[in-house]
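tl;dr need the bound structure. longer version: we got a ligand (1,3-dihydroxyacetonephosphate) that a collaborator sent over and nobodys looked at where it sits. i said id run it. heres the input, straight from their email, havent touched it
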Amino acid sequence: MLEYTPEVARATADLQERVKDVIPSVEWPVMAPLIHAINELKKAKNAVILAHNYQTPDIYHCVADFAGDSLQLAIEAGKTDADIIVQAGVHFMAETSKLLSPDKTVLIPSLEAGCSLAASITGEDVRRMKQKYPGVPVVTYVNTSADVKAESDICCTSANAVNVVEAMGVDRVILLPDEYLAKNVAALTDVEVIAWRGLCEVHERFSGEEIRQYRESTPDLVVLAHPECHPDVLAEADYAGSTSSMIRYVKEKRPARVLMVTECSMSDNVAAETPDVEFIRPCNLCPHMKSITLQNILESLQEMRYEVTIPADVAERARRAVQRMVDLGAEGRDFADGVKAAVTVESRASLGPVVGVSG
Ligand code: 13P
Ligand code: SF4
């Protein structure tokens, strides 16, 4: 049984100070022993915790060695000297870490940490898309399984999607599986985009009308939106970009009042570092991200579970697609308003019955 001893209080005092505005002090005696135990075990086992920006402040500020968006986490996974990577994020992020760090042990603390986008498409769906659109390059959002990445020419994230699409050097690409991201990318480029009917269950819940209501009731509101939102939402936003670009915007510009149209833990994480900014918080939680807790991070390090493995033939092809994205380097342009280019949206139903798609 872990206890809040004077030694634990002393060892975690700096961390408590960092999160004092977002974690009530009555909760600290329960969290601190777990935080202390995780940080000690990390040192003993030469492990790192890579956390996504949607993790809760106790994880993001108190046990993570590195926190970032999907692109930054992928790059960091390829660079770390640690023997063990604990992914405080969702399964596709852990798979991406394993692809870029094949010799390391990669652990995901919860088997519930999926993603509605990753679940929307299979490797077979991609093979059928390639059969329908022969020769059209496939750009795949990292929010997908290794099987889907293995069928792709290159990956992208919300931070670089426009650049990756344009770097293909063609006038038509398949961009899978997020329909709204594809439409938001198409708004910024002349490249014709063929999309897939996949959605993020968190971002699809926001509407342009909801954002207009927030603007009417809150003077001087600055609205930042993630590009997994509907194009109507981006049209209402002052800025749109990856989770880390949104955080950078708040830290640099210090708006008096801000609405981050994305998963709600983001606001708590930034609020801990920007007490002068007021956050308006519509709360849409990602249940997959929230399945990661201090308790299961500790258990994952103690019991070395749940190890992420990828069959060698799939890993080799998937790694090529991720590495090609990383090698392209740097982030891309921010997202603009409206939809300029035409987008064709395909789905399993629109592709019709399966005929002769080889694996
Ligand atoms: P970012 O790459 O912008 O962090 O987004 C990942 C994600 O899952 C958003 O829902
Ligand atoms: Fe997937 Fe959406 Fe959760 Fe991100 S927020 S992990 S895209 S379900």
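gonna send this back to them w/ a short note. Residues 160 and 351 are 28 Å apart (CA to CA).
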